[in-house]
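INFO batch 0412 | record 1 of 1 | parsing
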Amino acid sequence: MDLREEQVSCEYKFKGRIIKVRLDQARLPDGKIAGREVVEHPGGVTVAALTDEGELLFVRQFRYPYMQEMLELPAGKLEPGEDPFEAMKREQREETGTFAETYTYLGEIYPSPGYCGEILRLWACRISGACEMDLDEDEFLEVLKIPLEEAYQMALRGELPDAKTQIGVLRTYALVKDGKI
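INFO prediction complete | emitting tokens
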């Protein structure tokens, strides 16, 4: 069965600094037309950065859409035309003041494919050095170190509600246990 849908029309309803929202009309596999609401996002990057002591670096910050503080792996959005790998290294330096010699690619995830085109790319590394943090002027966060085993258990218990963080922790844990990181 062919499940593809064809875009018939596209109307932007909002164009902001980070996202665009559009209302499309799409032709379904049976020929009928249906509305499709789409959020366009430039994508983002995440890094699971491990210390020599086997701790993961987390950032604790307030997330306005949920009106609560959240514990997440360091992450950020892509700038237009920015290489995802370079963006990830930039975010690691800016948010944690650390860097690494080598990185392991953990893949990409689609956080909410029903309406959003965002793609997140994930990496893991062992920290090799420190530098100055360089937060954005509207960015306020605290860096925390959590042992990998504890972070793994937190993910399994549902204590890390952020999807990219859960996936980054679980994939990093598996690779460390297999001796691949």
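INFO post-check: The chain has three helices and twelve strands.
INFO record closed
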